[in-house]
Write a structure and sequence with these properties.
The chain is of the alpha+beta class. 33% of the residues lie in helices and 17% in strands.
Length: 107
């Protein structure tokens, strides 16, 4: 959610990307994460939007709500703001691929 669709822009700027890019979701708000990707309100309440748990559910939701075989999710705090526990610049990535365990990582 912190990129506001910049990943889709970067991918679709490449000639021929329409052969591999099926769609993108910009889910900046928690409501959008819930409605468009099926992120659990309980997960959001327990871990916050900027968490590996939410990134994982976002990626799984993007995979489930598309014809894709691979989905990437990004949620983070671009700034200004943040906290001691979740500082500005914290970004969580999720990667879901059909038939494989979903991965998540924080940078």
């Amino acid at each position: 959610s912190c990129t506001g669709g910049m990943v889709a822009v970067a991918l679709t700027d490449v000639a021929g990307s329409s052969a591999v890019v099926e769609r993108g979701f910009v889910t900046y708000s928690n409501a959008a994460k819930i409605e468009m990707l099926g992120v659990s309100p309980g997960t959001l309440a327990a871990h916050g939007a900027v968490s590996e748990e939410v990134a994982r559910e976002m990626a799984e939701g993007a995979l489930a709500h598309s014809g894709a075989q691979l989905a990437v999710a990004i949620t983070g705090i671009a700034g200004p703001g943040g906290s001691e526990h979740k500082p500005e610049g914290r970004v969580c990535f999720g990667l879901a691929m059909a038939g494989h365990p979903t991965q998540a990582e924080t940078r």
